[in-house]
DNA sequence: GCCACTAGTGTCAGGAATGATACCATGCCG
DNA sequence: CGGCATGGTATCATTCCTGACACTAGTGGC
């Protein structure tokens, strides 16, 4: 369900920039990663509480895609009621500086984002 | 034409991450910015040559959106044939660490992006 | 006159991304 | 037995994004 991926990373010198962006360019992926960096481990329901305006379906989707990309791991505990924990993989953890850079910029230049269409 | 923007940056602590991403989350925006960081000033046609698989319409679109967001400036020279130059604004230049972080990650972990659907 | 060049714009269409809503299994609690 | 909790799925609809293609203006060159 993500956009088309780059396979040959030779299309242009900046191609890897695009390719990286495709990994967490999904509408909520960066937010998911951000919360994982903050909290370490999160259950499905905790994500829901932290991101109330994301539908269950979208959340599942984005989590699965992040998992498929090897950025997060999903652990199911065979309990009732079910428990599923998500956490960053080693690869996912390497994204920390990237997310941090995004956050830092956003915090500093948030004013540049104002005055747009209505959003969340 | 971009996705819905955040106006109140209070939806969640990581909201600014998403908001920042919306600025250059467009399919080709990061690439445009990247080339501008590399070359400083670029004409429309130079973008086309650097990004051959982007249609003219998309390129115009993405450039206009970046301009509307105050990240790049567009200077028209009243000549024939017409000449239009694009360059980063001061605000746009502040994104450099972010783009660099993306590039750095992509270059290092490109292997994690392999084996996906066909792309460019 | 005819063609080329640059930097676009207009229109249309297809597909992907997203959202709303309803539904499921299991086991505990009362 | 009924209801609740968790972590999902399934289906459908819609909206948004993206691309293909054709077309434009003004001038220079042949």
Q: What does it look like?
A:
Chains A, B: Keywords: DNA-binding, Transcription, Transcription regulation. Chains A, B: This is Transcriptional regulator. Chains A, B: InterPro entries: HTH_HxlR (IPR002577), WH-like_DNA-bd_sf (IPR036388), WH_DNA-bd_sf (IPR036390). Chains A, B: It comes from Acetobacter musti. 2 copies of one chain form a homodimer. Chain A has 6 helices and 3 strands; from the N terminus they run ααβααββαα. Chain A has helices at residues 15-24, 29-39, 44-50, 56-68, 90-93, 96-108, and strands at 41-43, 72-77, 83-88. Mean pLDDT of chain A is 85; it is low at 115-120. The interface between A and B is large, with 59 and 59 residues. Chain A binds a DNA duplex (30 and 30 nucleotides) through α3 and α4.
Q: How would you sum up this structure in a few lines?
A:
Two copies of one chain form a homodimer. By secondary structure, chain A is α+β, with helices and mostly antiparallel strands. Chain A is 48% helix and 12% strand.
The amount of beta strand of chain A, in percent, is 5-15%
The helix fraction of chain A, in percent, is 40-55%
Question: What would you call the structural class of chain A?
Answer: alpha+beta
What Rg of chain A, in angstroms, do the CA atoms define? 16 Å
